[in-house]
Design a protein that fits this description.
About 25% of the residues lie in helices and about 30% in strands. The chain is α+β, with helices and mostly antiparallel strands and about 60 residues long. The chain has one domain. The chain has a four-stranded mixed beta sheet, with helices on one face. A hairpin with a 7-residue loop joins strand 3 and strand 4.
Length: about 60
């Protein structure tokens, strides 16, 4: 699944909640596209089963 976030970056609290929701939904993976609050540059997060939180991608 791919999710896009606009307006603000994904906060630390939400990273855990989104990961928990993805786990409960039975997703095989999740990619989240967002924007850095300070630079405004695109940012990517990922999640895979077993992870407790979204991790920032490269």
């Amino acid at each position: 699944m791919v999710m896009s976030v606009s307006g603000k970056d994904v906060c630390g609290y939400c990273r855990g909640d989104v990961a928990a929701a993805a786990e409960k939904a039975g997703l095989k993976s999740l990619l989240v596209n967002a924007f850095d609050n300070e630079t405004g540059l695109p940012k990517t997060y990922y999640w895979q089963p077993g992870m407790k939180s979204l991790k920032e991608g490269d």
